[in-house]
Amino acid sequence: MTAPLDLDQLQSFCVIADCGSFTEAARRVHKTQSAVSMQIKRLEERLGKTLLSREGRTVSLTAEGEAVYTRARRMLRLNAEIIDFFNDEDLAGNIRFGVPDDYAVKLLPIILSSFQKTHPRITVDVRCLASEDLLDGMSSGRFDLIVFTQGTSHEFGELFRTERMFWVTAPEGTALHQDPLPLACGTKRCFWRAGAVDALARVGIDYRIAYTSSNATAIIGAVMSDLAVGYLPESALQPGMKVITQADKFPLPHLNDAQIALMRGSHAYGGIYDALANHIISEMGNLDSHESLSSFAAE
């Protein structure tokens, strides 16, 4: 009978893959760097494959390492589920959570308020940043869980909600009629910005970047002040905004849907992490569109 793999070795391996550094991984798993190196050596010997490519200080996964990584993550998650099944203790602890500010104003207070009522012994430290910064923060170990708005193009993003994207402008505003079209958008790294400018380019609409910010509230302010036209996912629409539709005299091209996903650190399975992750997925995933878009559109 083949002996099972060592979960502790797999945990260290996944952490190295997450952060790209033996030194940082050793700090995160509370081991010496030499101990972590020995774990990886034994894991590679056990499997007969090289799992990590080391070039100077850079560490990356080999093809075999990628195959192990995806399966190791599933094993770590299942291990946490088994432990939780037999754990009768009240959940307590601290979670470092990141979320885009697109959702911070309208949804986050409601979601976290209800979570704190049902889990009073879990504290959640929240940082609101652009999705690109949240993903960077996850790889550098600053977060346990993040919600990000680029879907599952990143490894282990758990897609749980898809929303329509809309062009928006100020009620009775003139920005929509300007040539070139003034845009209020995120930074160059913003996934939604790339989608918006590609859509405009496809239909030959000339544009200029009139207002740039990584802060959603600032973008909304620029739109409502009629400085520029913007774009938002459905749940981030604000009362009084005009949603530009194909029925308008100056329609804009269709935008791809926004994909909203949750990502965990390789340690963030089971216990307090599942409690928050499941709550977010349930609360945001169950948001419906019972409010008509006409409630956001200026007549």
Give an account of the 3D structure.
It contains 9 helices and 12 strands. It has helices at 7-19, 22-29, 33-47, 63-85, 108-118, 131-139, 191-202, 216-224, 271-285; strands at residues 52-55, 58-61, 93-99, 122-128, 145-148, 157-163, 165-169, 181-185, 207-212, 230-233, 242-244, 258-264. Strand 1 and strand 2 (58-61) form a beta hairpin. 33% of the residues are buried.
Features:
alpha/beta, elongated, 299 residues, three-stranded antiparallel β-sheet, 12 strands, 9 helices
Helix content: 25-40%
Rounded to an integer, what's the Rg over CA atoms? 23 Å
Discrete helix count = 9
- What are the secondary-structure elements, in order, as H or E? HHHEEHEHEHEEEEHEHEEEH
The fraction of residues assigned to DSSP E strands is: 15-25%
Count the beta strands. 12
Major sheet = 5 strands, mixed
Net shape: elongated
Mean pLDDT: 87
